[in-house]
Amino acid sequence: MDDELHERIRAVIKDVPAGTVATYGDIATLSGAPSPRLVGRVLAEDGHDLPWQRILRANGTPAPHLAHRQLELLRAEGVLADGQRVNLREYRWRPDGLAAEDGPAGLFEIPDI
């Protein structure tokens, strides 16, 4: 991954406000990354100063090895989980100027689980 993409991913993650969450896919789409896995890689390798707790899997769950701490940090920001899942319809970040109808297909469409 080139440095420019790395920094774009970091910048989008920094923009996710407290009290909201985004998925790895949201961050990939907004930063122009070709895969959500690259977002995870940036967080794993260089995410110590980022609000990593605000980034979830597509189904609203945290990574299993981080679940307890991540949900605890989110709860402190006012994001409540139902068990191990955050309700993306309620807490998902919707950046200004990017609505479901004019954003990338599926970015803010949450499948019923």
| Largest beta sheet: strand ordering | 1-2
CATH class division: Mainly Alpha
**Computed CA radius of gyration, to the nearest angstrom:** 13 Å
Strand share of the residues? 5-15%
The tally of helices reads 5
For this structure, the CATH topology is: Arc Repressor Mutant, subunit A
Report how far the terminal alpha carbons are from each other. 33 Å
Structural class: mainly alpha
Shape: globular
Helix coverage percent: 40-55%
Could you spell the SSE succession in H and E letters? Answer: HEHHEHEEH
Low-confidence stretches: 101-113
Task: Give the averaged pLDDT, no decimals.
Answer: 87
CATH homologous superfamily, by name?
Winged helix-like DNA-binding domain superfamily/Winged helix DNA-binding domain
Number of domains: 1
Largest sheet: 2 strands, parallel
Total beta-strand segments:
4
Name the CATH architecture.
Orthogonal Bundle
